[in-house]
Design brief:
The protein has 2 domains: about 5-215, Rossmann fold; about 220-280, Alpha-Beta Plaits, CATH 3.30.70. About 30% of the residues lie in helices and about 30% in strands. The chain is built from 10 helices and 14 strands. The protein has a 6-stranded mixed β-sheet, sandwiched between helices. Strands 1, 2, 3 and 5 form a 4-stranded antiparallel β-sheet that branches. The chain has a 4-stranded antiparallel β-sheet with strand order 12-13-11-14, with no helix packed on it.
Length: about 300
């Protein structure tokens, strides 16, 4: 049974469609990263899932059921526009959240706060943006929920805090928890996500594992030969999108998928060196953005 499942989920604001027919499945113990530019529908999706806003069409099930007060206690949530009670200390804020959730055991919250180097004795109004974000993360995980939904969780975190947070997320998922998070920080998604979905203009345009996305993405290979080799020799190889003569002895190829045939062809000539630019999620994200003509 999937932890999250949506069917033909859509949300419109008057004549403006924010989300189109979203079919999303998130599995138990999975970290799922939702990528997209501003206005793509990421925050709308997360708010629909936790029932802050209601869909115009389609359906949502969490743990195989529709949202209910009973399910809320099994979910942790970090909004993108986190609002805190400035006069409450971090510890008091966590106690307040525990009371609202009827979950007074704050041991996990205090452990995570220590890992993130968060001072819980200071009022929230005195905290920096990064420390306010840490407090939001702690409250989302602090009651040991089965599912945590995070909107731009790394926003404002320094590199050390980001690294500790990523480690905690992986430990949480390895222990059976499930995480769905949105992000503009592509390196973050690449580090912690098991699967990635890219939203553009309210539509899910691609969904796959990070490994598969990178394996099927456009990559660039440069071959250096001991003598002049015509670029046309590489033009008809499956997967090769372009072959350009850089100099008399150097050929640059852009290719997708397996490159075995390309390398075998290059090996027929006096090959001296091969360099490869491996795609990262940023390359993939830009590729799909350009391919789908997203202007947001």
């Amino acid at each position: 049974m999937n932890v999250i499942s949506t069917r033909q989920l859509g949300k419109s604001y008057g004549k403006i469609a924010a989300l189109h027919d979203l079919n999303l499945e998130v599995r138990p113990g999975e970290v799922y990263g939702l990528l997209g530019p501003n206005g793509a529908g990421k925050t709308t999706t997360l708010r629909l899932l936790i029932d802050v806003i209601r869909p115009t069409r389609g359906s949502i099930t969490l743990f195989g059921s529709k949202m209910s007060p009973r399910l809320r206690g099994r979910i942790g949530y970090l909004p993108g526009d986190l609002v805190l009670y400035d006069r409450l200390t971090g510890a008091d804020y966590l106690r307040f959240c525990g009371a609202v959730r009827a979950h007074p055991d704050l041991s996990e919250a205090f452990r995570l706060a220590k890992r993130l180097d968060l001072d819980l004795d200071r009022p929230a109004g005195e905290l920096s943006k990064g420390n306010r974000q840490k407090l939001g993360i702690v409250q989302a995980f602090g009651h040991r929920p089965e599912l945590v939904i995070l909107d731009e969780p790394a926003s404002g975190l320094d590199p050390l805090a980001q690294r500790e947070f990523h480690s905690y997320v992986r430990e949480y998922a390895d222990g059976g928890g499930t995480v769905l998070f949105s992000s503009h920080v592509l390196s973050e998604v690449e580090q912690v996500a098991d699967r990635v979905g890219i939203l553009l203009a309210g539509s899910l345009v691609v969904e796959d594992t990070v490994m598969s996305l990178k394996a099927n993405a456009m990559r660039e290979l440069t071959f250096t030969f001991g003598e002049e080799v015509p670029a046309a020799s590489f033009g008809d190889i499956p997967g090769v999108q372009a072959a350009v003569q850089v100099s008399g002895t150097e050929v640059r190829c852009r290719a997708t998928g397996a490159v075995g045939e390309l390398v075998r062809t290059a090996a027929r000539f006096p090959l001296l060196n091969v360099t490869s630019h491996e795609p990262d999620l940023e390359d993939i994200f830009v590729h799909y953005t350009e391919e789908h003509g997203d202007d947001d």
